[in-house]
Amino acid sequence: MPTSVNPTGRRARLRRLPAVLLVGALAAAGLAACDPPIAKPATPTFAATVGIEPQLYEAAAKPCDPANSYDKPGPIALRNLLTATYGAISAGITRTCDGSTSEHHEGRSLDWMADYADPALRTKALAVIDWLRASDDRGNANAVARRLGIEYWIYNKQMYGSWNGFNPAPYACAGDATSCHVNHIHFSFTWAGAYKATSFWRGTPLPTVGTTGSSFRVDAQAPAPALATTQLAGGRTYTVEASGIYHFGPLAAQQADAECSVVNGVWTASRSSTTYGSSSLDLVIGGNNGLGGSTWIPVTNTGGGCNTVDHRYRMSVRSGSAVPLTGLILDGRSDNSGGLTVKVTPAG
User: Fold this and answer.
1) pTM of the model
2) Cβ-count burial of 158 within 10 angstroms (0-12 exposed, 13-18 middle, 19+ buried)?
3) CA 259 – CA 277 distance, rounded (Å)
4) CA end-to-end span of the chain
5) Which of 68, 158, 199, 309 could be a cystine partner for 168, CB 3.0 to 4.6 Å?
């Protein structure tokens, strides 16, 4: 701008500054403009042929199982990655079961105490959120969040949910810094993310069920869901078949299968309506909301919805997107033994 039309006279004032002060002021301005951006965690690179996980949500079970309240590998790995990037910031995973619903009780949530009220911690937290939500070089939105198997996070009164494209939405809270997640970020993981069985860690998403099907085993004593080694393809129908017998106690007569159990010497499905976490003695299949469940159709119905011939049961499942499959036997499992085999096969 010409000096003659500068209404503030700024150029004139700069000319009157001593040369050493002028050089120092300009140097300081240049340094401020070139401050390096805040670091972001190291991210693997993926070949163009490598797929990416869908945006999923798997709700926590209620009531929780105390035996399942232990830190899972995925939250541990993210905590370690954040520590490696930003230094030691307090972080916790598992909470003791108290009757409420939370992925913390299942060991698949991480609270990272990056307090929004602290400018330095807030800068780091916002950098992490940008990192999670950024698109990759192939245009996959929220690429890191999906590859980590994160289903949502909450920070500073905002919920970033997979069901909402990880866009922030107001989060209802009691008003204090903890319940409003002002003093920390809460991350929750899908079961694949909890088990560290996602592309961020393993290099590729879980493979899709092949034409001949695939099987996985559900341990009757395991308190956490078993994760299948393959996942469903979106828009395809599958037949899930469960087979086998396990023991829900030390006695030979204490037997159960996917749907029925022995009551007074008779196989019955009557326990199947019992609340989760007690002795319902049922196999539940999951992967996300509305997928699977515990409604099994006996391959051979020998009465009352049971199959005492070969203890095989089936259900049909279908998902709109790729979904990892889980299986869990609903029981107190303090003295269980054995397990069930689950086979997943494309239908048609």
Assistant:
1) 0.85
2) middle
3) 16
4) 75
5) 158
Token output for 211 = 């034409």
Beta carbons within 10 angstroms of residue 134's beta carbon? 15
Structure tokens, 31: 């340094």
Q: What does the DSSP assignment read for 121-185?
A: HHHHHHHHHHHHH---TT--TTHHHHHHTEEEEEETTEEEEGGGTT-EEE----SSTTTTTSSSE
Q: Domain 214-346: which topology? A: Jelly Rolls (2.60.120)
> Per residue in 233-276, pLDDT tens?
999 999 999 999 999 888 899 899 999 999 888 999 876 444 44
Q: Where are the domains of the chain?
A: 66-202, 214-346
Q: Which helix (H) or strand (E) holds 267?
A: strand 266-268
In 3D space, the residue among 235, 237, 250, 230 whose CA is nearest the CA of residue 327 turns out to be: 230
Residue 232 tokens, joined: 């469903």
**Rg of the chain over all Cα atoms, to the nearest angstrom:** 27
Rounded distance, CA 84 to CA 37, Å?
17
At 178, which amino acid appears?
Answer: T
Helix (H, G, I), strand (E, B) or coil at 78: helix
